[in-house]
Design brief:
heterodimer, A: alpha/beta, Rossmann fold, 2 domains, 9 helices, 27% helix, globular, B: mainly beta, Methylamine Dehydrogenase, Chain H
């Protein structure tokens, strides 16, 4: 039997109806990579999916009884993962395609909240497919389009042949205004090397910094009109873990509904190892990772993607976590 | 484990076992107790004749995994549901026939009940739908729930069927002319269900590592919490005095007598080493409970004296199923890593 101790990687594919999600999915499945995937699709899928192991899901979003209003999970995924583990040796990874209107938060939170799911699988990345031509209209008429971009680790900016180069630059700037930290790939017919979307390790705490080309940049001054934005902060002095835990705990409790994703790498006082931290809304996860390489700056960094981000307040809060 | 304790495992002296190379989803016995079936994640069912040391028969029943498995209420075999959307009957000789198809939906839960005069009931769920059949596979009812059914169980008399789902459970009368369920409501995701053998309570497992219950008939709420992990297995003792549960580092047994379980402490059996109990199964005749753990250990405990009898050593992967034969002389054991065993408890 397959080794039951290896966590199955899970890739989440989101994007509006017609953006090219199913095209990308079929591309991943048919490429000659020798890997087998279990595919979880919703019952309103646009096109057929060409795969041996396809699971129909109902996208049942459940609230948790833990007093946290934004803490929702996908009950169907908990059951599906449990069922798939009974035939664990039949596939190498799981791909979850969400409906066009889905908010990615419950999917992501499922992988943090449920112990069985956490033990058996690991969330690899959230991949969002957007349509270069229709994205501005989608952003104007729905919350979910911005959420899907905000949550993304990888954005496939598809159907670039339908817009002018100027329009394409404008739409990419709009995406950057929402999420500065995702990797953007411009494509036609969702054509791109599969390695750009699979096995990203985007939720791997030890790789949190490596994946974000913009992570190390200072603050930027993107002009944007979207209600979702992203910000990063840096503190040069070592961090006091108690102060940080107290501050981030209250922040996530109070503003968790607005904070879609939070990530950070912290250098604690009197500790060589770095502390990596991430949260989806109020649900946080963190652990020590290896020490910084010699010569690397010892600044601590935090990234927020969300609504109503108050830059001065977040900056002051993070700076107040410095050790005395 | 010391050498003496190692030698005391009943599997060594009174068990037979096989490595079946696929997740053992469920194990059960035929109605006459002469056959045991192990339902596997590779879609096969392995059938062994109790007390006969011959090869086990392997039958491919589903194109995918078996998801649930129950005793055929009238025949000499089993009923199984799979992730191929099929509900099938496996006769004792290994022949297979279709009971129903649920299309592309997984058949996640199967429950059966043997009535008298050669009659019986078969229930299966796929998504939000529960279908109820007679023993021949004739559809009697289709029961629709507000969300996906996560557990399915008959009461002790075969008069009612209970289904757990989001925000509670539904209790349906099997013979009702009009189908309106008794709704037992409690906010949250309920992931499994059990009915007291005398019909005095319904208990569900919940996503938040707790159990919820409703006293019947008044529907008073019961809350049983403190579990470090999710409860995946619940079992009432033969007369309903105790309810055993998994999800802690011991078998946790709640007293359903003397005003319990509310305000009463549960008893904990075979605990203390920090290993989570994954399966429990109460004996059909005596106040004895079998417990399986995530390290592969299986024990049988006498509830009154708390005495523990070691059955299977912790060597074969997390215990995924336990089942007693109808007369209580045989215990079937299965693990996530494909180990299956049959242990003989008959007097010699």
């Amino acid at each position: 039997m397959a080794d039951a101790n290896i966590q199955v990687p899970v890739t989440v594919l989101t994007g509006y109806l017609g953006a090219g999600k199913t095209t990308l999915l079929n591309r991943i499945l048919t490429e000659n990579h020798g890997r087998k995937y279990a595919v979880v699709i919703n019952e309103f899928g646009e096109l057929g999916v060409d795969n041996d192991l396809v699971v129909d899901s109902d996208e049942e979003v459940f609230e948790m009884n833990n007093g946290c209003i934004c803490c929702t999970v996908r009950g169907d995924l908990i059951r599906i993962v449990d069922g798939l583990m009974k035939r664990r040796d039949k596939f190498d990874g799981i791909i979850i395609e969400t409906t066009g209107l889905a908010n990615p938060a419950p999917v992501a939170q499922t992988f943090f909240v449920d112990d069985n799911v956490k033990a058996k699988t690991r969330l690899d990345a959230i991949v969002t497919v957007v349509d270069a031509k229709h994205l501005p209209a989608r952003l104007a008429d729905s919350h979910e389009a911005a959420d899907q971009i905000a949550f993304a680790d990888v954005i496939v900016l598809n159907k670039t042949d339908l817009v002018t180069p100027e329009e394409l630059d404008a739409v990419e700037a709009t995406i950057r205004g929402i999420n500065r930290f995702a990797i953007i790939h411009r494509t036609q017919r969702a054509e791109l090397p599969i390695a750009q979307v699979m096995d990203r390790g985007a939720f791997d705490l030890s790789r949190i910094l490596a994946l974000h080309p913009d992570f190390l940049d200072g603050d930027d001054d993107h002009e944007h009109n979207e209600d979702v934005s992203s910000m990063s902060f840096e503190v040069e002095k070592p961090i006091d873990p108690e102060k940080f835990n107290a501050w981030i705990g209250v922040l996530l409790q109070d503003k968790g509904a607005d904070l879609l994703r939070t990530k950070g790498i912290l250098h604690y006082a009197n500790e060589d190892r770095r502390f990596a931290f991430q949260a989806v809304h109020m649900i946080a996860d963190g652990d020590f990772i290896g020490p910084a390489k010699d010569g690397d700056a010892r600044a601590s960094r935090l990234v927020f993607i969300g609504r109503n981000l108050n830059r001065p307040q977040l900056r002051r809060g993070f700076e107040s976590c410095a050790a005395d | 484990m010391s050498q003496t304790a190692e030698a005391a495992f009943l599997l060594r002296s009174r068990g037979i076992s096989r490595d079946l190379d696929a997740f053992v989803v469920a194990a059960g016995f035929s109605r006459d107790g002469r056959r045991t079936g192990f339902a596997l994640g590779d879609g096969t069912v392995r059938i062994a004749q109790v007390g006969v040391p011959t090869d086990w028969t392997s039958v491919t029943v589903h194109d995918g995994a078996v998801l649930d498995f129950a005793t055929d209420p009238t025949g000499d075999g089993f009923i199984s549901g799979g992730d191929d959307g099929k509900l099938r009957r496996i006769a004792g000789d290994g022949s297979i026939s279709d009971v129903a198809s649920f299309g592309s939906k997984w058949v996640e839960h199967v429950a059966t009940y043997a009535l008298d005069k050669g009659k019986g009931l078969i229930a299966a769920s796929a998504g939000k739908i529960v279908r109820l059949f007679d023993q021949s596979g004739q559809l009697l009812k289709e029961l629709i729930h507000p969300s996906t059914v996560t557990g399915l169980v008959f009461d002790g008399k075969g008069k009612r069927i209970g289904a757990s789902h989001y925000n509670g459970a539904s209790l349906w009368f099997v013979a009702a002319k009009t189908d309106t369920p008794r709704k037992l409501e409690w906010k949250g995701s309920h992931t499994g269900i059990l009915i007291h053998p005398e019909g005095e309570a319904v208990v569900t497992a919940m996503q938040e590592n707790a159990l919820h219950g409703w006293k019947l008939p008044d529907g008073a709420h019961m809350r049983m919490s403190g579990y470090p992990a999710k409860t995946s297995s619940l079992s009432f003792s033969r007369n309903g005095k105790w309810m055993a549960s998994s999800g802690a580092d011991a078998m946790v047994l709640w007293p359903f007598f003397g005003g319990g379980p509310m305000g009463k402490a549960p008893i904990e059996l075979a605990g203390g080493d920090g290993i989570i109990c994954t399966q429990v199964a109460c004996h059909p005749k005596d106040d004895i409970v079998a417990g399986g753990f995530s390290d592969g250990l299986v024990v049988v405990a006498d509830i009154a004296s708390s005495r523990i009898l070691p059955v299977v050593p912790p060597d074969h992967g997390p215990i995924s199923t336990l089942g007693w034969s109808p007369d209580g002389t045989q215990l079937a054991v299965g693990t996530e890593t494909g180990f299956a065993a049959l242990v003989d408890f008959a007097k010699r």
